[in-house]
Amino acid sequence: QVQLVESGGGLVQAGGSLRLSCAASGRTISNYAMGWFRQAPGKEREFVAAISWSVNWSGRSTTYADSVKGRFTISRDNAENTVYLQMNSLKPEDTAVYYCAAQAKRISLVISTAYDTWGQGTQVTVSS
User: Fold this and answer.
1) Can you give the three-state secondary structure of the chain, one letter per residue?
2) pLDDT 10s digit of each residue in the chain, 128 long?
């Protein structure tokens, strides 16, 4: 079983940047699809970005929510067993708890219930 620990959250002004890290232990993440989700107060958890363990079934290894496309970048370092989420041009509406998740099966990159393992989350707050 893989365990995930997120870090890198914090308070940033609008327009600023943060890089979230998701450190995995227990198993190598090279065989997992990895995703980032977020949940704002009073809202449902929503998909942010995901990266497949290889070229995925649509021919791309990464996919993003429309709301973050062009501003966020997901990447993975299999040697470090870590996944990153680089967040640029942050907006107040990006404020949420951000969760890292791992998926062993090829079900869906964007549906939260397809993921098997979750981290505890890291708070991102963007001030206006």
Assistant:
1) CCEEEEECCEEEECCCCEEEEEEEECCCHHHCEEEEEEECCCCCCEEEEEECCCCCCCCCCEEECCCCCCCEEEEEECCCCEEEEEECCCCHHHCEEEEEEEECCCCCCCCHHHCCEECCCEEEEEEC
2) 899 999 999 999 999 999 999 999 998 888 889 999 999 999 999 999 999 876 555 545 899 999 999 999 999 888 899 999 999 999 999 999 999 999 988 789 999 999 999 999 999 999 99
